[in-house]
Backbone:
């Protein structure tokens, strides 16, 4: 068996070392991700440069790359908070968030990879407690859900803007009240609805009665004015005017002038 030349051993060793270096130096960053470079002998976390983007990168083997997801992510939270009168309310909410891409190095340096538990969850819980504590259970149940959603978003966003995290939306999916409070609110709302319906029917009936009264008064006034205007002289003139029109008709007739009551003509004849 032929022995390998002595020069072959150093070449093999060098090749193995080079392979190991390449393996440790190669970094592939996937879609929707970015990398934070940590320089072991160069000042630690790189914060003043853009993070490493998607694709293949070669770094010094003694350095490290921490990979973060930079796409929008969703956090689901079930929180028990107190209303303005001290009753316990359960809020089911979700938050859409993502790290600020240009500040990824600062995020890694100050909060680390578990920034979700360190800052986002405490921020949204604190905002929810603050906002819900301003409202009664009845307001939360009926008309203020959109309002508390917007207010929780605004307060959480203020906190996270200082923590290199971008909050895109907060959605309040459900507000759960104690069953006894919920039933009492539903009874009250039902009573209010019935009261409004009764008031509507009452107002409608009053308007209809007023309309009929006005119409009757109008007819009475018209009859009174007409009766007052029909004097004997006017009636006589109207009778003469009607007689003159009848006399012009082609139908045969006999007109006796001055033979009727009040001197009106009497018309005799047939067609």
Residues:
């Amino acid at each position: 068996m032929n022995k390998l030349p002595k020069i072959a051993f150093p070449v093999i060793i060098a090749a193995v070392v080079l392979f190991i270096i390449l393996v440790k130096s190669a970094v592939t960053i996937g879609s929707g991700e970015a990398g934070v470079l940590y320089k072991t002998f160069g000042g630690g976390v790189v914060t003043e440069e853009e993070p490493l983007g998607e694709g293949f990168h070669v770094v010094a083997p003694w350095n490290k790359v921490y990979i973060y997801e930079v796409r929008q992510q969703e956090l689901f939270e079930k929180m028990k908070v107190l209303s303005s009168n001290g009753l316990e309310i359960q809020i089911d909410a979700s938050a859409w968030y993502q790290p600020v891409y240009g500040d990824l190095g600062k995020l890694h340096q100050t909060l680390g990879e578990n920034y979700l538990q360190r800052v986002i969850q405490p921020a949204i819980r604190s905002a929810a407690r603050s906002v819900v504590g301003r409202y009664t259970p009845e307001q939360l149940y009926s008309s203020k859900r959109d309002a508390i959603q917007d207010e929780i978003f605004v307060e959480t966003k203020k906190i996270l803007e200082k923590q290199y995290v971008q909050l895109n939306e907060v959605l309040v999916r459900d507000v759960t009240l104690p069953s006894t409070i919920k039933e009492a609110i539903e009874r009250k709302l039902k009573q209010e609805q019935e009261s409004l319906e009764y008031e509507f029917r009452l107002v409608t009936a009053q308007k209809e009665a007023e309309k009929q009264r006005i119409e009757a008064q109008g007819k009475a006034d018209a009859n009174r004015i007409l009766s007052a205007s029909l004097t004997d002289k006017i009636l006589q003139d109207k009778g003469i005017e009607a007689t003159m029109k009848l006399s012009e008709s082609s139908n045969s007739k006999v007109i006796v002038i001055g033979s009727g009551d009040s001197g009106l003509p009497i018309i005799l004849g047939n067609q």
